Amino acid sequence: MKQIAALVLTIALLFSLSSCGQQPEPEIIHDFRNVDWGMSQSKVLAAEGTDYLYADDTLMYFSGEQLDQPVELYYEFKDDKVFSAECKYVIQEGMILSDCIADYLELREKLIELYGEPHESDYHVWASEEARAEYDGDKEQIPIYYQALTYYNSWDTETCFMELSLDYTNLQINLILRASQIITEEETTE
Asked: For residue 2, what pLDDT is reported?
């Protein structure tokens, strides 16, 4: 009888262990990439998993990758605590504005999946009402090229304010994701 009870217990234990291995791990959402606000420079370095290209008391700069694209990563610190970050996409040789628009829209969709709809219902931001009138229904490459249009969206999470922008200025295409810590009343009184 003891042998049967031991066998049943062993089988039950094996089933419970095998079913535990099949449960997906919940995805941890960080404030920015694998970084959370308040991390020290050493923790940000570990989270990025690569050596920095530049660092001082207030800034760390990395070269990295996001959405299979090379990026420049900037982290700002105060009292050895990160409070702001920026991810600037490196525009590679041969990339054209339409490639960058596609990257913007892909990144925008990923942010919507994570954080919901952005504050703005439209991502087209005109430089002026005159620019809007001149280009009328065309909201793509030409107005950006003439610096009459920027793509922009923003989100609030529980801990940060995020901005995604695409513009063309001084012959430079800039696709940038910025995030900054939202300071709560509790944190200002500490």
From this structure: 41
Q: pLDDT, tens digit, for every residue of 101-149?
A: 999 999 999 999 989 999 999 999 999 999 988 887 777 788 988 889 9
Q: For the chain, what are the domain ranges?
A: 91-190
Sheet order of strands, 54-55 included: 54-55, 59-66, 69-78, 81-89, 172-181, 160-169, 149-156, 124-126
Question: What is the model's pTM?
Answer: 0.78
Instruction: Quote the tokens at residue 56.
Output: 């001082």
**What is the number of other CB atoms lying within 10 angstroms of the CB of residue 44?**
25
Contacts of 70 (CB under 8 A, 6+ apart): 63, 64, 89, 90, 92
Q: Whole-angstrom distance between the N-terminal and C-terminal Cα of the chain?
A: 64
Amino acid in position 164: L
According to DSSP, residue 130 is labeled H
The full DSSP string for 61-105 is EEEEEETTEEEEEEEEEETTEEEEEEEEE---TT--HHHHHHHHH
Q: Coil, helix or strand for 133? A: helix
Rounded Cα–Cα distance for residues 167 and 174 (Å): 5
